[in-house]
Design brief:
Shape of chain A: globular
Helix content of chain B: under 10%
Number of helices of chain B: 0
Mean pLDDT of chain B: 92
Structural class of chain A: mainly beta
Largest sheet of chain A: 6 strands, mixed
Number of strands of chain A: 11
Shape of chain B: globular
Number of helices of chain A: 0
Strand content of chain B: over 45%
Strand content of chain A: over 45%
Distance between the termini of chain A: 41 Å
Distance between the termini of chain B: 35 Å
Largest sheet of chain B: 7 strands, mixed
Oligomer: heterodimer
Low-confidence stretches of chain A: none
Mean pLDDT of chain A: 91
Radius of gyration of chain B: 13 Å
Number of strands of chain B: 11
């Protein structure tokens, strides 16, 4: 079965610094990959998704992710962090009709 | 726009009690899902449905049951509640086949079993 591993349960950056959240996937077939964000006491919202159209995927709020098949990775980046980016981020993989999530990475942004 | 609506938002159960978490969506999505979220564990898939009358087990189905009699509704039943079922439960729906579609989530139901 497909799965994802998120490296680092907590990441802390200063406002204006680069954000890098790591995700590696395991899948027997070309996967569909997603990043979701969860703000406190809310459900998850889609940031971006990869469905094989392009390896560099741009999402909302200035986030982007690059699919690297050779590294089985789908890391999330943002050039300059804002205070409003503080949240929990989940990588997810889907092969058929279900979607499996990573354990999540909590992003803290320091002023 | 209502989207995905879950009730109740909070509930405390005693060990051995039963209850149903309600989920309804107004987007005419065929695909619906139940996840549980535990700290540091991400979201675990409990059950999913690809259409009315069709359900299937996810990663952690034990202790739960579902039904899908209509496109709109996908209730999750907890029988004989146990402390291990203390969690936040999320219902989600999707429009696309083959797992390519975005999941739309409800706001969650926080369940405590004492």
């Amino acid at each position: 079965a497909q799965s994802v591993t998120q490296l680092g349960s907590h990441v802390s950056v200063s406002e204006g610094a680069l954000v890098l959240l790591r995700c590696n996937y395991s899948s027997s077939v070309p996967p569909y990959l997603f990043w979701y964000v969860q703000y406190p006491n809310q459900g998850l919202q889609l940031l971006l998704k990869y469905t094989s159209a392009a390896t560099l995927v741009k999402g909302i709020n200035g986030f982007e992710a690059e699919f690297k098949k050779s590294e089985t990775s789908f890391h999330l980046t943002k050039p300059s962090a804002h205070m409003s980016d503080a949240a929990e981020y989940f990588c997810a993989v889907s092969e058929k009709n279900d979607m499996r999530f990573g354990a999540g990475t909590r992003l803290t942004v320091k002023p | 726009n209502a989207g995905v609506t879950q009730t109740p938002k909070f509930r405390i159960l005693k060990i051995g009690q039963s209850m149903t978490l309600q989920c309804t969506q107004d987007m005419n999505h065929n695909y619906m899902y139940w996840y549980r979220q535990d700290p540091g564990m991400g979201l675990k898939l409990i059950y999913y449905s690809v259409g009315a009358g069709i359900t299937d087990k996810g990663e952690v189905p034990n202790g739960y049951n579902v039904s899908r009699s209509t496109t709109e509704d996908f209730p999750l039943r907890l029988e004989l509640a146990a402390p291990s079922q203390t969690s936040v439960y999320f219902c989600a729906s999707s429009y696309a086949t083959g797992g390519t579609g975005e999941l739309f989530f409800g706001e969650g139901s926080r369940l405590t079993v004492l």
